[in-house]
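Box 3.1 A note on notation
Throughout this textbook, protein chains are presented in two layers. The first layer is the amino acid sequence; the second is a token string describing backbone geometry. Keep the layers aligned when reading.
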Amino acid sequence: MEEQTICPWCDSEIVWDEEIGPEKHCPHCDNELSGYRTMQIGIDRDEDDQDDSWDEKEEQAQDDSYNDESNEGFRQMNVSWLAAEETIRQMTDSQDEAPECPTCREYMLEAGRQSVALTPTIHAATGKPVIQSPFETVTYICPSCFQTSSVLSPEARNQMLALLTPKE
């Protein structure tokens, strides 16, 4: 008598000889036949056949946790994001620059300017610093992932280019 089985990995029919018995690996795809993991989700089952361990109280508790005001999950975050989206668009449209976030590629919001004081490095190639201290940076915040980023202010950029441009 031959036993017929379908491989759960490649859906090939496996015919086992009674003398040889069941194999541990599929002869077609060479995957372990006993290592396949399945999960029953009840799509094809009738209402009467469903597992009794999941009852209406557990389902209601799960629904309540999604609607809980203190829950800081994705649903609350998405609602907040949608509510702020128009304001964020207006703010980025009014900015001189709206750099993309290096993490998530959303447009960043200008948060403010910061004065930076440092001891400049004098480079041997030019005999001058790259930029004179103090200088200003503009800080941006991503409204999606909340990463921050700083760039030189336009005035500091012009100063840097002037210092790096050779005088003839």
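Helices lie at 56-67, 74-94, 154-164. Residues 74-164 form one domain.
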